[in-house]
Amino acid sequence: xxxxxxxxxxxxxxxxxxxxxxxxxxxxxxxxxxxxxxxxxxxxxxxxxxxxxxxxxxxxxxxxxxxxxxxxxxxxxxxxxxxxxxxxxxxxxxxxxxxxxxxxxxxxxxxxxxxxxxxxxxxxxxxxxxxxxxxxxxxxxxxxxxxxxxxxxxxxxxxxxxxxxxxxxxxxxxxxxxxxxxxxxxxxxxxxxxxxxxxxxxxxxxxxxxxxxxxxxxxxxxxxxxxxxxxxxxxxxxxxxxxxxxxxxxxxxxxxxxxxxxxxxxxxxxxxxxxxxxxxxxxxxxxxxxxxxxxxxxxxxxxxxxxxxx
Length: 310
Ligand code: NAP
Prior knowledge:
alpha/beta; 7-stranded mixed sheet; 5-stranded parallel sheet; 28% strand; elongated; binds NADP nicotinamide-adenine-dinucleotide phosphate
């Protein structure tokens, strides 16, 4: 399957690139990947995407973006790219289903995924009381005690969301200051169900073996080294995200955290004709609206590249 523009990934960056490329008559193909719609499909309220006076829902916003991309002429394919070859042209991408996609230009918009602490117990209890998505799993903790680990926007949003179900939500942060936006902090501090535990690191998750079931956590005060156990039923890890760039290793230049490096004021990677937009290349802003903006840039740059080439 050959296209002038192949877009890999289906978050706000990918769909916006598709809308612009399709409207430039480039007949783009967009391969959706593991989580069609990306991270916004596992959030609820979105109140900072401009253009909507009322609060909208993340999954709905992504459905709209997909429909818009399709309506202007993007071919959207439900498939997962597993390997790429950008060493020669046309560029190649091979999918899980065995299909080979070739393209004159590629826009990488595979986004980022939740980061884990790396504890053995965290892995063991995943799906049995440990989660990285409150909107997916919060429902299971009606009138239970849960903890959220982290101090960014995600952690605060998860904690607030969990108060819809849980009786108590502990927010456990390794410092005594949150990096979350002020408006979210205000909501957090005004919510009686939330108790902040400052300067503490999660050490271990405790629970039953058979059946697997979380019963508590062990946390350490990073200032005094004192360790304490807290009884609870669920743990939500919200400590940030890692870029989904594994398959692009050795193909495009990345920094030591795996973010794709692009030229200043551009989405161009070190490979001419290959662009990167959204969370795969942005560790600073990571917003739906900035990702969408970069998707637009990538499509415009690909259009210019193809016009100069022909
Ligand atoms: P983040 O802003 O990077 O915050 C990660 C948090 O986890 C930080 O508080 C960090 O602590 C903590 N942390 C990291 N590694 C840790 C570890 N090993 N042990 C304990 N704590 C650890 O990540 P995020 O909250 O996922 O947000 C990512 C981006 O998405 C941000 O740009 C955010 O603004 C955006 N976002 C926006 C919205 C919104 O606008 N509504 C919602 C969600 C996310 P330190 O503070 O000590 O570094």
